Amino acid sequence: MEYRKLGQAGVKVSRICLGTAFRAFWNGQSDEGTCIKVIEKAIELGCNFLDCANYYFGGRCEEVLGRAVAGMGKRDDLFITSKVWSPIGEGPNDRGLSRFHIMREVERSLKRLRLDHLDLYLLHNWDAETPLEETLRAMDDLVRQGKARYVGACNFSAAQAVEALWVAQAGGYDPLACLQNHYNLLHRQECEPELLPRCRRHGLGMMTYSPLAIGLLSGRFRRGQTPPPNTPWSGGQYDFEKTMTPRADRVVQTLIDLAAARDATPAQVAIAWILDHPEISAPIIGPDYPEQVEEVFGALELKLTLEERAALDQASAEEEKP
Predict the structure, then answer these.
(1) Tell me: the pLDDT tens digits for 6-58?
(2) How many domains does the chain have?
(3) How far apart are CA 59 and CA 66, in angstroms?
(4) Which of 60, 101, 165, 229 shows a CA-CA span of 20 to 30 A to 235?
(5) Exactly one of 56, 150, 173, 209 is catalytic; which is it?
(6) Is residue 11 part of a domain?
(7) 3 catalytically annotated
(8) Domain with 280 in it: what CATH number?
């Protein structure tokens, strides 16, 4: 396993982060025991970076992660995240980034995770209804209380991230250490134009989620074909025909060709492309089974050539609009 600093923070995290949303668990296609085996396998392979959220399966994913970590007895070696913002009930204060909601939800997350602190507590999204000063002061209080080691933000635009840094500096609050955003070969425009340059400029870490585009970049899905059964694309959760465009299929074919030449898998090549970006601290993988952990971690041994990187960049370039 490789490790690197989280932006300009001193802590070092594994180059691949294990996401514990466990969508198959939500959908009844997996069980808690399998989820725990996934966590155990990742930690055995050297992963110390584990991502979760209070929203995932109504808090049950935090409970599973807590049981797995407690069972292995390696909590002190792990860097564990959770998040706050998403709706967790029907009450007027059951969502958002108010001080009320943040202070209540961190206690609930810590209880479910069986922890006395989070290593990184993330704002799960922007809250236009709450003053940013209120949110960042609450997060700063959590750091001062020892309930969070670092704070970060998910799904912020570049402008929102810079505003948060400015407000934190002006108020003397603990600044954002890390961002978390959607990024893969099919979804490049959210990060590349402004967010990645801001990470370089301000020393922010960057976690990226959905590196395989919910499995589309695994090589198992092709345009004009029926999606494999028991996947989000076969159950009507997502629009496969709309998403698997000619551009997307071109990217998949490029991954298949490059993988065949390197005795690798398309998923490993897709992850290696993300790892090739120095601004990115770690992509967040979402395996459903232990064997998928081993496959994806194999991307760490795959160093793309300049020609391979150029081929993927070209295949995934956005279509020019008429």
Answers:
(1) 999 999 999 999 999 998 888 787 899 999 999 999 999 999 999 999 999 99
(2) 1
(3) 11
(4) 60
(5) 56
(6) yes
(7) no
(8) 3.20.20.100
